[in-house]
From TrEMBL:
It comes from Rotaria magnacalcarata. Keywords: Membrane, Transmembrane, Transmembrane helix. The lineage of its organism: Eukaryota, Metazoa, Spiralia, Gnathifera, Rotifera. It comes from the Eukaryota. This is Uncharacterized protein. The chain crosses the membrane at residues 15-32.
Length: 60
């Protein structure tokens, strides 16, 4: 195996931990902040914002 491949594999665990941390942070934000806020504003207003949220979240 080349030294470049070994170097990449040595840092793969750090990339995995960083990715898991970002995922967990996003899930926590949605659980604590976004979902309760959307529930508080009511269904009619939620439908007004849904197309914009969907457009930003959809894979292009």
């Amino acid at each position: 195996m080349s030294s470049t491949a070994v170097s990449i594999l040595d840092h793969l665990d750090k990339v995995a931990v960083l990715s898991a941390g970002l995922f967990a942070g996003t899930a926590l934000y949605m659980t604590i902040g976004e979902v309760p806020a959307m529930r508080a504003i009511g269904g009619d207003i939620q439908w007004r914002f849904f197309p914009y949220m969907y457009e930003r979240a959809a894979v292009s």
